[in-house]
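COMPLEX REQUEST
Ligand: NJP
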Amino acid sequence: MTHHPLTNQVAIVTGASRGIGRTIALHLASKGMKLALTARTADALEALVREIKAKDGNALAIPLDVSVKDEVERLMRETEENLGPIDLLVNNAGLFSAIGPLWETDPENWWNDVTVNLRGVQLTCAAVVPAMMERKAGRIINFGGAGVTGPFPFGSAYAVSKAAVTRLTENLALELERLGSPVKVFAMSPGFVRTAMTEQFEQSEAGKKWMDYMAQRFREGLDVPPERAAELVEAIALGTFDALAGRYFHASGDAGKFEEIAADAEGIEMRGERLLRLT
Ligand code: NJP
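STATUS: Structure written out below.
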């Protein structure tokens, strides 16, 4: 394994059992990071840990539900006990199951999407920030998505939860800054990626009925590989965008422009870009 500035740093990746989170985990492991991997599906996490270890990486599976406070607190404890202080939290876990017009979706299902997407981020951030503040180091990346930059018809629970996560991120970044903490928080979109979450647009009854306008992107070849998200996570973990904490990044739109964006930090701040605002 080649030496990399992230080698031996500790990261938690939520939602690592499949899709984008799995790709991020493999990418960070290839840079030598020590990983705590979480999701609800233990088998898939264990298989990923074996795959990482087979390539001389260091990873630990901690299966749990990110929306349950005690379990999230256990995640932080077990990570620190087994791997060391946490340098990076990647809040990638997400759920999109309430598909359809608001009045036709099951209200419990609707709230469960919001609970996983928003409460999950709230709980993990709240659990990890005190230790990061104490050590005066650490970065957090929260996943936004459709609904952040505009409406997302037939995906209202998902949209409001992702918009809320983006506001939570800016809020938290400002709170840390005002308290003089060097801990940095960012929001990002992975772009449109073929995963179980988006394949339901082609495969489930509700997806075919209501989300064909999104499945159209597959037919037009507009989906992007999950590796773009992993590359953006790596750049954020390296501190590339520390001057832009609290703001929103896009794995596909920003690809190949990391240095340009970082160099324009003052301009981005002056123009008020990459923030959730009314125009
Ligand atoms: O989704 P998927 P993606 N507690 O469904 C886990 C965002 N995004 O990779 O618990 C703990 O393949 C679940 O594991 P399991 C998106 O909103 C995507 O596409 O075992 N973990 C699995 O590992 C999400 O935030 C696109 O079922 C829970 C993972 O989360 C992130 O990217 C576009 C959990 C979901 O894997 C990854 O999405 C965009 C819980 N309660 C944003 N519930 C895109 N794909 O195009 C679920 O803008 N998980």
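REMARKS: The chain has eleven helices and seven strands. The beta strands are 10-14, 34-38, 58-61, 88-91, 139-143, 184-189, 248-250.
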